[in-house]
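Justification of computing resources. Each target in the renewal requires a structure prediction run like the one illustrated here; the chain below, 155 residues long, is used simply to show the kind of job we budget for.
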Amino acid sequence: ISDTEIQQLVRLKGAGVSDETCVTLISTAHDHKRAFSSADSVANLLNARYTESDVITYAQADKLDTISGDAVMLRLIGLSNSTVTAILQRELQGLPTISSAAIGRLKNTGLSEKQIVELIAQGITEQQAENEANSREAARDHAHTDFVRARSSRR
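Resulting structure tokens:
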């Protein structure tokens, strides 16, 4: 273990990571032919209520740093555990998915989780998701803005 990895290990322990998980994470990084440098990603995932088992799964797929930001954002958006799991599994399998920012915009325009998951399963691209969100936002912003003639009684 290098000095840098010792600093990372101290951060892991400060985040409350078990000894067994620390060893697994460092060993996994070494298996991928690099030094462990993902303590912040691990801490962020744990703070977002992911389990140590989830963290190990992401590390073994060599996606710990790349997936942690989206994983945390998916929790903050307020998606259910099953939806978050489905989206992250697609990403781990290398299947196309959209960013958490696009998912958040779609959710804010009134799409249900089920509709969002269906769009992702259909292979919606990031640009298509942005276009859909823009369209839905425009429709929402212009709803109920029709001209209505004010009528008053004549004297």
